[in-house]
Amino acid sequence: MSVTIKDVAREANVSVATVSRALNGHDNVAEEVRKRVLGVADRLRYSPHHAARSLSSRRTQTIGVVLPDLYGEFFSELMRGIDVVARERGLHLLVSSYHGDPEEQGAALRAMRGRVDGLLVMSPFVGERGFLERSLAPALPAVLINSGDADDHPVIRVDSYGGARAMVRHLVEAGHRHIAFIAGPDGNFDARERLRGYRDALAEMLPDAESRVLPGDFDEASGHRAGRELLAADARPDAVFAANDMMALGCLFAFSQAGVRVPDDIALAGFDDIPLARYVHPSLTTMRVDIAELGGAALRALLQGNGNGSVTALVPELAIRESSRAVRR
């Protein structure tokens, strides 16, 4: 038999009305009581009746979007793509971010219960045992963005591994032999795939070359730090490949401050092709990802009910600009 709201109320030792208010995120519930109710609901795998309906019923006409952050051009472009499709279908969006904290993300996902008809989730915690099962209502449709494979949910992601290999190939063909890499956050799926692509391509195309990886956090500040670190080293690379454009732009600023010319002294490349990449000087070579389409494709997959476990990978395109042109050495 399915679990009812009365079962949750009895187990949590509160009224049915309190359970309803806690699950729907109302403010007039003590935090301790809310946590107890959510814990019992998770343990019993309770799903509110309207959240358990199929997405096509459109009971709330609202889609939940849970992202690591809302800052930066990547996330603004992603949200733009989601919003375009939502407006076409007459849907509203409920958006939340969790800044890389698994407990905050779990709370954000649970707070969506009863408020939305489906979820778009970008999470580095998908691979952790039981994380989604604890956080998502069992019958609530969800699509994962830029994550690893998930048996219980469809995944829409960028082919970050293939894109990184393509960028290394471009830099090698341009004559560069010492290629450094500015990595992204350790727990990020895209970051891991881009690092793996860099290392595999380097080992295949330049078997005698050593990989040189600097830590980064997908923001301008970490790219700037990496650029300063490279300039302070005894041996400078021929080229720098940053795992995203924001770090590449931070690195470019560090080079500019030091009077290092790009690409004459050091070539530079990024990944994502954020709108700013083509307007800096020199314009940035990057892997072009249609970020807005990534968001739009995720929402369309949710609305179409793509099969659980299905994976759709968007293939990035090499955009060669001034920052990586071949130079005579």
Automatic annotation (TrEMBL):
Lineage top rank: taxon: Bacteria
Domain annotation HTH lacI-type: ranges: 3-57
Gene3D superfamilies: 3.40.50.2300, lambda repressor-like DNA-binding domains
Molecular function terms, GO-annotated: DNA binding
UniProt entry keywords in alphabetical sequence: DNA-binding, Repressor, Transcription, Transcription regulation
Pfam family, one: Peripla_BP_3
PANTHER family: HTH-TYPE TRANSCRIPTIONAL REPRESSOR CYTR (PTHR30146:SF151), LACI-RELATED TRANSCRIPTIONAL REPRESSOR (PTHR30146)
Protein name per its UniProtKB record: LacI family DNA-binding transcriptional regulator
Biological source species: Luteimonas salinilitoris
Lineage start: Bacteria, Pseudomonadati, Pseudomonadota, Gammaproteobacteria, Lysobacterales
